[in-house]
Amino acid sequence: MERIAIYAGSFDPVTVGHLDIIRRGLQLFERIVIVVGYNPDKKGCFSHEERIAMLRKCTEDMSRVSIDSWTGLTIEYAKKAGACAMLRGLRDGSDWQSEQRLALINRGLCPEIETVFLTAQPEHMVVSSSAVRELASFGAPVKGYVPECIEADVLARFRRT
Ligand code: ADP
User: Fold this and answer.
1) 42 given a catalytic annotation
2) Which listed residue (18, 48, 88, 157) is catalytic?
3) Cα–Cα–Cα angle for 42, 158, 47, nearest 5°?
4) How far apart are CA 152 and CA 157, in angstroms?
């Protein structure tokens, strides 16, 4: 059976850290489904459509990666998709605290689906979507934080506001 992993998040916007987890995840799984959380009441910085469009651009060359959106619990999506794992990235202790809790809750809901953690690359330790938003909002460069192909999209979003 095909080994599918779910990589869920808000991706507001996608960063080089996220992309690295996806690339490395592809060595472990046959297929990765990126699930973009959708909550109509919680408006992020980038619209749901913008986040998906940027993810598409960054994963264009990855034939084993697909993108979907979901409003419910991601573990429910994983069950529905026949996934064997939830893929997560870990930067530091504070990621671990929240990720461990999430993994245990998900295990309680669905013990057959394992959470697999990949350690962030040292150069991605300070990379986060919120850091990108903050830098871009002050007109600072986001080079090295987001994939090159979406740098202009990220900066353009802030020039409009
Ligand atoms: P959320 O919206 O829940 O904060 P994100 O969309 O930021 O989640 O991230 C999704 C996953 O990617 C999480 O497991 C998070 O720890 C991981 N991640 C985020 N940034 C990085 C990074 N720079 N390096 C490695 N993993 C990361």
Assistant:
1) yes
2) 18
3) 30
4) 9
